[in-house]
Design a protein that fits this description.
With 559 residues, the chain is of the alpha+beta class. 28% of the residues lie in helices and 24% in strands. Helix 8 runs antiparallel to helix 9 and helix 8 runs antiparallel to helix 13.
């Protein structure tokens, strides 16, 4: 057995959505599920495989990614000292109006007559009677549903993304049964390599950087636990005499009841824990349980379909049992293997006797008590910094660039209204091929491919339209601009070759960008200005060509 430790830095907001929440809001989980990292590694693993390779039909692929012998744990936030936060147990409570002491109901009954609230922070760190609480920063953004051709917002199509904020650091673990498997996965990941995780990856979300990846020493991996002390070392696990056993779920668990159905029930969890410990049914006697149900879904990228939704038990759930004497190897096997289904994706992770022996924990003063902050609120007194590398500066830069895009959207609508592709000789299939090349150019720009490379590719295709057996129609095609007409191929080539460096003529995208940047004394937010670029000019020229009346309508003359 061995453990692979992967540290990630979010370079863009991360949208790892669950199944709960408002229909018009995509709210991320406070962590990156293990299924996201597993999916990225599957993509890298398949790069060197031949066409037609089936992961599920290969024994190595099954072992590394599918059958649960390799388990991908969720990426949880790190604190400033590089220690991994763990989910806050649901047995933790605070008295109403009091924030200094956290009470653990797994250790004692509540005080008579006192009123308690749940602890709202998602993660915590325990050490010697002290507790630190933490909820990661979230980035709240509003978006419009946009017209696919012109790109302008559609009336009423407003939705919201609540994503994990960029700049956060997270740590994931990969548990491997064989040392060779851990080494093979290690070779797939390089330090400082970037990967895309989560949703809306083509819209500025999900880019992460691998800050560090390392293998545990094989001898130390035998004693690995997800629980660490202040020094970062795993806490010891020892033989347990007969008495209370406190089990805390560190991730959602998918367990089945006696009828084989997925169930969010304490009985199903109890049966799964007993099997994991190698005990007979009834050997554990449940004393108390603090849990809540959660709806679990997923997405199968190979099928292109959502997975069936099922009920599970939420992470942080706590179960207290009266248990017989248990050996260290039984407890260690339970923590190593986990319980329930979909363990390859990090479900069913747990720890034993992490807490439950101390009634109250005192909060440390360096807590981070943020809950769904809107990043703009962090600006403070209204003065925006000029440093675009700070989190606030990056946010301000995105905001001012969006203002620039809004102005250019208006200019694009005006430009498209003044032009028309005037030839009906060009067949619909030919127009469709041109649209496909233009759309491919937009996708390449979104994936950060250099504008020069995209321009060469698109111009090369436009020039190829002037030759061949069906070139006469393209050579005769015109673009109408009011009372004037232009040869279509020449006009399209000039638009794609346009750059902001040259003196932009009136009625061009580069001219529209220059005006947008100069409006109202210059476009800036605080000390941070909006920036035009060749990629932006090329993007809007491609969108202009795609929105031309006569070129974007479906053909009706091919029958």
């Amino acid at each position: 057995m061995n453990v692979l430790c992967v540290d990630l830095v979010l370079e863009e907001p991360l949208l790892a959505t669950g199944t709960e929440g408002d229909a018009n809001t995509n709210t991320s989980l406070p962590y990156a599920p293990g299924s996201l990292l597993r999916g990225a590694l599957v993509g890298w693993y398949l790069r060197d495989k031949p066409t037609g390779y089936q992961l599920g039909a290969d024994a190595d692929g099954q072992r590394l990614f599918l059958d649960g012998r390799t388990r991908y744990l969720g990426a949880y936030p790190l604190d400033s000292a590089g220690r991994r936060w763990l989910p806050t147990p649901l047995s933790f409570r605070v008295k109403k109006g009091e924030r200094v002491t956290v009470y653990d109901f797994a250790a004692a009954e509540p005080e008579a007559g006192a009123e308690y609230d749940p602890v709202r922070e998602a993660f915590c760190f325990l050490d010697a009677g002290r507790i630190r609480l933490h909820t990661p920063l979230f980035d709240v953004s509003f978006h419009h549903t946009r017209d696919r051709d012109l790109g302008h917002p559609v009336d009423g199509g407003i939705y919201r993304h609540v994503a994990l904020a960029e700049g956060g650091q997270q740590r994931a673990y990969i548990l491997c049964e064989a040392d060779d498997d851990a080494k093979q996965l290690r070779r797939l990941m390089q330090q400082d390599e970037t990967l895309k995780l989560g949703g809306d990856r083509n819209a500025g979300y999900g880019q992460c950087r691998i800050a560090e990846v390392h293998l545990h020493d094989t001898a130390k991996a035998r004693f690995w636990r997800p629980i660490t002390g202040e020094d970062g070392a795993p806490t010891a696990l020892e033989d347990m005499p007969a008495g209370p056993l406190v089990v805390t779920l560190l991730s959602p668990a998918l367990v089945r009841d006696a009828y084989g159905q997925y169930a969010a029930s304490a009985d199903a969890v109890e049966a799964s824990i007993a099997r994991g410990l190698g005990l007979e049914a009834g050997a554990l006697r449940r004393r108390d349980a603090f849990f809540r149900p959660v709806l679990v879904g997923g997405f199968n990228a190979h099928w292109g379909m959502a997975l069936p939704q099922m009920w599970g038990v939420a992470m942080g759930s706590v179960f207290v049992f009266d248990a017989p004497a248990l050996r260290t190897d039984q407890l260690r096997a339970l923590e190593w293997q986990g319980i329930g289904h979909r363990r390859a994706e990090g479900y069913g992770r747990l720890c034993v006797n992490w807490h439950g022996t101390q009634v109250a924990h005192t909060r440390k003063e360096d807590d981070h008590d943020t809950l769904f902050p809107v990043r703009a609120a962090a600006i403070g007194d209204g003065e925006l910094p000029g440093d675009t590398h700070s989190p606030v500066g990056k946010m301000a830069q995105r905001m001012v660039q969006q203002i620039l895009r809004d102005r250019m959207d208006r200019a694009l609508r005006n430009l498209a209204a003044r032009h028309r592709f005037g030839s009906r000789e060009v067949r619909g299939a030919q127009r469709g091929h041109l649209r496909a090349v233009l759309q491919d150019g937009l996708l390449r720009l979104q994936s950060k491919q250099p504008a020069d490379e995209v321009r060469v590719r698109v111009v090369g295709y436009i020039e190829s339209l002037g030759g061949g057996s069906r070139s006469d129609a393209w050579r005769r095609a015109k673009v109408e601009e009011g009372s004037r007409t232009h040869p279509a191929l020449n006009w399209m080539r000039a638009r794609v070759q346009e750059t902001p460096a040259a003196s932009p003529g009136f009625g061009t995208v580069a001219h529209a960008m220059k005006r947008a940047l100069a409006e109202e004394g210059g476009l800036h937010l605080g000390d941070i200005p909006a920036e035009g670029s060749e990629a932006l000019v090329l993007e809007y020229n491609l969108r202009l060509l795609l929105s031309l009346p006569g070129l974007r309508e479906p053909a009706t003359d091919d029958a």
